[in-house]
Amino acid sequence: MRVVLDANIWVSAAIRAGPAHRIVQAWLAGSASFDVVICPALIAEVEEVLTQRPRMRKWIALDVAEHFVETIRVLADLVPDPAAAEPTTRDVDDDYLVALAREYEADHIVTGDKDLLEWPEQLPPVLTPAAFVELVGE
Q1: Do residues 111 and 12 touch, judged by C-beta distance below 8 A?
Q2: Structural domain tally of the chain?
Q3: In terms of residue numbers, what domain contains 70?
Q4: N or C of the chain: less Cβ packing under 10 Å?
Q5: How far apart are the first and last CA of the chain?
Q6: How do the pLDDT tens digits run along the chain, 138 residues long?
Q7: Count of beta carbons in the 10 Å neighbourhood of residue 13
Q8: Are 133 and 23 a contacting pair, CB within 8 Å?
């Protein structure tokens, strides 16, 4: 199974325990029953949130955030950024995730973003972290 983890999943995994943390830890440990599709634009988004936003310092130290992002960068099988995304969702900033998932044949997008979770088309299907954990048993 191939999945796209939205930036909010990576950020959540870095700063708190819960389903997103379980998903990312399984992937980092190499014990996951899924492969992660990730591109430079997605890593850049995670890096920007975790390292450039001062309010994040109350949840994660800068050096820990930098190490987390570098670990993702090293361990990920990066795919190129998707081709220009067509307007697909109600939030144009989410369209590249859909394009990424479609271009690289992901089975699911995992997110906490309501715009994607309430997206009527659901192609590929969009799951919350808790629903994904339940699906794969991580």
Answers
A1: no
A2: 1
A3: 2-136
A4: N
A5: 13
A6: 999 999 999 999 999 999 999 999 999 988 888 999 999 999 999 999 999 999 999 999 999 999 999 999 998 889 999 987 778 888 888 899 999 999 999 999 999 999 999 999 899 999 999 999 999 986
A7: 24
A8: yes
